[in-house]
Amino acid sequence: MLQELLQGFSGPKAQAQIIERFAALPLIQPDREDHISAASLRNACRRAGVQIGTIDALLAHLCIRHDLTLLTTDKDFTHAALHCPLRVWPATA
């Protein structure tokens, strides 16, 4: 998530603010089992007709594993949540 935010903003001031604010949050690092489980999640979604990207499947799995709710505007996560225990809090535009 941090990387995606930093890629979406230009300028050193915005980058510094994002890095500073994210410093207060714990960093979750996936291990081998997370990647294996994310692949299974992606395959299950695909069998159900839901396309979810590799990194999105990993994010979804990490949220499930760590009992987190995903705040997103990406409808792919909402569709995936119909086929796995992912909790999604959709951001309103």
UniProtKB/TrEMBL annotation:
Gene Ontology MF annotations: hydrolase activity; metal ion binding; RNA nuclease activity
Domain PIN: 6-81
Keyword Nuclease: yes
SUPFAM superfamilies to which the protein is assigned, alphabetical: PIN domain-like
Keyword field: Hydrolase, Magnesium, Metal-binding, Nuclease, Toxin-antitoxin system
Pfam (any one): PIN
Top-level lineage group: Bacteria
Keyword Repeat: no
Full protein name: Putative nucleic acid-binding protein
